[in-house]
């Protein structure tokens, strides 16, 4: 396999096979020739896990015991996300890269056998099902010591095009219902590899938060005839006090009912359902706002802030007129040396308690001198 696919912004995607049959996709802008082969010995891929229904809350849980042995915080000289150099044979066979996306080596979800169907939810008698879906790793840069906030605008645009491309392609798979790109940054939020990277989970079911958002949006549309997210965004723009960064096409703000000490939503001014609906002009305008937001977040306490960067978008087949694309960045850091732990009320009951007003954290973010 050596397929080349032209994308927007003069980005070329080149696909190669890895030694165990997985696919790696290079997103290049400099006309690179990708001929390196994976020199590692062939290994069997792990089997598929299972989906079990938690009947108390009617939510699917993926059971994936094969993930227990995955790599955990290796030193730089053993990083599996760095390029292959000398005797270090990594997940990326080439000696350099801009952005790469490859199938996860220990996926929580993977392609099922032909004819797979998600069981109907019928309480404790609901049968288990193979954990269908897809898990991919997105490496933002070959530079091990950097982070997303250290990328150039050109690099951010390439990452964004990878997210667009993967959403477009994964949406064509018949068992995929929801596509979720995200990043865990920092050991405080459970990162297991320190190389700057994110992941994409493509679910075969609608996660519970998506179902709740859909339910709220559907009720609001029935009662008002309007789209809930659009009205929420309009309020943030009108209030102004929680806006952190903006340009002609994107706006970043701390939401009115933020749940975390520092929570930021970044969204197009003209909302869209998912990545595939971004126009080239809007996509080109994303990087300046994204980088400003992350630099402000790191500047609040003068330390790299642990965060989860979660991309919410409409499901593949449901509610595409109701839910909107937005990037939700949440940090559990509330002060130097202090974290907001999700304790009893948050973890057990899902009832969040904020110790500071969202307007206060928005002001702290705006006050950062860049």
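^ structure tokens above, recovered residues below v
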């Amino acid at each position: 396999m050596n397929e080349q696919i032209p994308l927007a912004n003069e980005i070329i995607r080149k696909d190669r096979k890895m030694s165990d049959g997985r696919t790696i996709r290079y997103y290049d802008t400099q006309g690179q020739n990708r001929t390196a082969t994976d020199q590692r010995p062939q290994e069997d891929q792990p089997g598929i896990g299972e989906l079990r229904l938690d009947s108390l809350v009617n939510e699917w849980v993926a059971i994936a015991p094969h993930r227990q042995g995955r790599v955990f915080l290796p030193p730089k000289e053993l990083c599996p996300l760095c390029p292959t150099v000398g005797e270090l044979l990594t997940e990326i066979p080439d000696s350099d890269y801009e952005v790469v996306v490859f199938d996860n080596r220990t996926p929580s979800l993977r392609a099922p056998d032909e004819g797979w169907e998600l069981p109907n939810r019928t309480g404790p008698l609901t049968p288990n099902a193979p954990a269908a879906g897809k898990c991919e790793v997105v490496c933002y840069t070959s530079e091990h010591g950097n982070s997303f906030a250290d990328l150039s605008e050109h690099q951010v645009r390439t990452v964004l095009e990878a997210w667009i491309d993967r959403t477009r392609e994964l949406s064509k798979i018949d068992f995929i219902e929801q596509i979720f790109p995200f990043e865990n940054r920092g050991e405080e939020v459970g990162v297991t590899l320190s190389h700057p990277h994110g992941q994409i989970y493509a679910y075969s079911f609608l996660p519970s938060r998506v179902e709740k958002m859909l339910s709220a949006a559907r009720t609001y549309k029935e009662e008002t005839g309007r789209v809930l997210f659009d009205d929420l965004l309009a309020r943030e723009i009108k209030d102004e006090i929680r806006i952190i960064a903006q340009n002609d096409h994107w706006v970043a703000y701390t939401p009115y009912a933020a749940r975390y000490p520092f929570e930021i939503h970044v969204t197009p001014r003209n909302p869209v359902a998912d990545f595939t609906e971004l126009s080239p002009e809007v996509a080109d305008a994303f990087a300046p706002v994204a980088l400003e937001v992350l630099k402000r977040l790191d500047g609040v306490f003068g330390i790299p802030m642990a965060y989860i960067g979660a991309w919410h978008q409409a499901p593949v087949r449901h509610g595409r007129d109701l839910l909107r694309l937005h990037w939700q960045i949440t940090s559990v850091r509330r002060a130097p040396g202090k974290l907001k732990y999700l304790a009893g009320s948050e973890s057990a009951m899902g009832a969040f308690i904020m110790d500071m007003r969202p307007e206060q954290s928005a002001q702290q973010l705006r006050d950062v001198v860049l």
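The chain has a mean pLDDT of 95.
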